[in-house]
């Protein structure tokens, strides 16, 4: 019966010991290292500040939209701190974001406006000192990406 089954399927019985050795496994190639783009937080380069300025939010449609109703509802005299970076921020489509720090503290959510501008909004200027150190860093990688040359925001620069 086994012979009939083999005949119907077209199989022939191979002599034992004549089987071909299994094919060698394909050579595996190590994956190429992932290279961080120059402006990504993985590049571990400081985000240097070119200039910093302060602007009144009320009366500016774009700043009013970015500040949002929650801040504007509780703010007495809202101001926007604007930072321009020395180099473009690169792709902002990632899980991290560049953040503005004033005197070493993250003061709120930062809005990034490509290619090189950042905004943070304050309800008023009461939390600011006479001279304030402004830096930028990528959230989650602050130690390696924080500006090495802080910019100074003085009370005289406030609107």
Write the layout of secondary structure elements.
Elements: H1 2-9, E1 49-56, H2 61-74, E2 79-85, E3 98-102, E4 105-106, E5 110-113, E6 117-122, E7 131-138, H3 142-145, E8 151-154
Describe the structure.
The structure is a single chain. With 159 residues, the protein is an alpha+beta fold. It is built from 3 helices and 8 strands; from the N terminus they run H-E-H-E-E-E-E-E-E-H-E. Strands 1-2-6-5 form a 4-stranded antiparallel sheet, with helices on one face. A 4-stranded antiparallel sheet has the order 4-3-7-8. The chain starts with a helix and ends in a 5-residue tail after the last strand.
What structural keywords apply?
single chain; 159 residues; alpha+beta; four-stranded antiparallel sheet; 3 helices; 8 strands; 16% helix; globular
- Would you report the number of β strands? 8
Instruction: Show unreliable segments.
Output: 4-8, 28-42
The H/E string reads HEHEEEEEEHE
Give the overall shape.
globular
Rounded radius of gyration (Å)? 30 Å
Number of helices: 3
Task: Provide mean pLDDT, rounded.
Answer: 83
Distance between the termini: 99 Å
Widest sheet, order of strands: 1-2-6-5
Strand-residue fraction? 25-35%
**Structural class estimated from helices and strands:** alpha+beta
What oligomeric assembly is this protein in? Answer: single chain
- Describe the sheet with the most strands: 4 strands, antiparallel
